[in-house]
Amino acid sequence: MAQTLDPNADNNLCRKDYVELHTFNATDPSAVILGFLTEMQQEYTTLTDNLFIQIGLLNDEISKLKLKAREHPSSPSPAPKPGSTPAPPPPTTSSSKPPPAVPAPTWATVARKNKKKKNPAPVATSAPPPAATTNNKPSPQQEKKSPTLRERRLLIKRDGTALPTSTISLRDQINSALGSTFVQRIEGDALNNITLITMETIKATALNSRASTFLHLIPGTSSVHLDTPMTQLIVHGIPTSHALLNIGEELTTFNTGLILSQEPRWLTSNDRREGKSASSIVISITGPKAQDIAKRSRLSAFSSTFRLERRLRFNHLTQCARCQLFGHHTLRCTNDPTCRWCAGKHLTSDHTCPVGEDLTKGRPCSHTIVKCAGCSGHHDSRFPKCPSRPPASDVQMDLH
Ligand SMILES: [Zn+2]
Ligand SMILES: [Zn+2]
Ligand SMILES: [Zn+2]
Ligand SMILES: [Zn+2]
User: Fold this and answer.
1) How many angstroms separate the CA atoms of 224 and 208, rounded?
2) N or C: which end of the chain has fewer CB within 10 A?
3) Signed CA dihedral, 340, 342, 346, 351: sign only
4) Residue 221: what pLDDT?
């Protein structure tokens, strides 16, 4: 590459060589053709190398712009080159999917309390406590984009006993145990469970991986988990002779990574289960593996496997993330896709800059004319005050 940085010199040299070598033999047509080909190849090599250099420069520029966009998320960054600035994404909610239709009071696993070996007791945690490092800079993974509040929450389920100190003092103790300011604040609830909220640039995963360093400061801890969305699933054909607590234990023990956020319950009423040997249960799962588990077709328990189905809850207010219409669940949509941002006939995730300048997909840019699929108004299709949104007053159905 270095030699081609000065391509003209090379080319001249080459032509000179060619002339010296071949002038006396200019009548040989194959030599002439070979000469031309050599020259052409040189030129293409030079052009390609120049393109690579330009790509490198553009990539540098892109990284710089990304950095600036992160530093000033709400104001457009100044354009170093006219017409080439991608607008920073607007501070919309992060996902095009509808929020989970279930309330999300996540509390710890029901089964764990009976399984002492699984308790993440301070000393039992397997990860070696990392040395209290003095570096304050976030890891590369944290630098990509600022985490959401949910990604900054680490939920600590406790046995109900009062905390030994105030949350302020606990926060300071945890930060000093970590040797760095990870925790911004601590929230408690009526049951003395606590939530650690990390600094804006730090993800709760970073805190979770260092839990062994500070868990001794929080006595009575029964489980620690990230604030992942709760997913509801239905498990079919469970023998009705088993107690729900027992079913929960079986499921968490024999399906690695399955974390129940509350005790399972039967899908149908006691009356309707009368005389039946097997029935369906509803489970709420959480944790980093929740989405993987939800995709499985069967779960293991009681030395057998049981059919698993995602529980889809929706009502007339549920808005489909695929077609933007109301009253059905995205996973059951049979309509053509409609873009949330421009009402175009494509998936929201396929939305691109209408003039092709911005490379970000799935988000509106400064060139996008936002148009609502419901009312054609100048707002996106999920705008809460859209006049075409159905009224919230009606009684809610609960179907699956
Ligand atoms: Zn739909
Ligand atoms: Zn679009
Ligand atoms: Zn654009
Ligand atoms: Zn609208």
Assistant:
1) 8
2) N
3) negative
4) 87
The DSSP output letter for 399 is B
* Residue pair 234/282 in contact by the 8 Å Cβ criterion: yes
Query: What does the block give as tokens for 332?
Result: 């059951």
**What pLDDT does 185 receive?**
95
- Please report the pLDDT score of residue 297 as a whole number: 95
Positions in the chain short of pLDDT 50 = 1-24, 74-143, 395-400
CA distance 100 to 318: 10
- Residue 83 alpha carbon to ligand 3 centre in Å: 10
Please tell me the distance between residue 221's alpha carbon and the centre of ligand 2 in angstroms: 47
Res 51: pLDDT: 65
Q: Give the number of the ligand closest to the Cα of residue 319.
A: 1
DSSP 3-state of 96:
coil
Question: Is 314 strand, coil or helix?
Answer: strand
Around ion ligand 3, which residues have CB less than 5 A away?
A: 353, 357-358, 365, 367
Those residues whose beta carbon sits under 5 angstroms from the ion ligand 4 are 372, 374-375, 377, 386
Token pair listed for 273: 């289960």
Chain centroid to Cα 253, Å, comes to 27
Contact, 159 vs 174, CB < 8 A?
Answer: no
Distance 359 CA to ligand 3 centre (A): 8
* Distance, C-alpha 365 to centroid of its chain: 21
Give the number of residues written for the chain: 400
> Cα(338) to centroid of ligand 1, in Å?
9
Say how many C-beta atoms besides its own lie within 10 A of residue 317's C-beta.
16
- DSSP conformation letters of 324-337: --BSS-GGG--SPP
Q: Closest by alpha carbon to 300, among 259, 251, 260, 261?
A: 251
